[in-house]
Amino acid sequence: MSDTDRKDIEELVRDGASQLGFEEATETKAVEVLEEVDGVEAAETPNEVAAGVLYGASLFCNDKATMREVAEVVDAPPETVREVYSDIVSQLGLGI
Fold this sequence. Notes:
Elements: H1 3-20, H2 24-36, H3 46-60, H4 67-74, H5 78-92
Helix pairs in contact: 1-2, 1-3, 1-4, 2-3, 3-4, 3-5, 4-5
């Protein structure tokens, strides 16, 4: 993932967190996870990565949103959120 992609994804994450009304801790966690992720095989677009990162952070921080809500806000296909989220969890060994 290039630095440009990472910045685009971070912007999508921050905008999405704001639109969903997430706490600052959730947004911060999503950005931290994004910084650790090397790439996500299930994701074809920055929007899909942003959706997976944001959804995972929302679960970790107890700032609940459905996969569909997250997908709609960041303009990603809802069916890919679970796959991307699962890839991220596996890659980082997170217990979310």
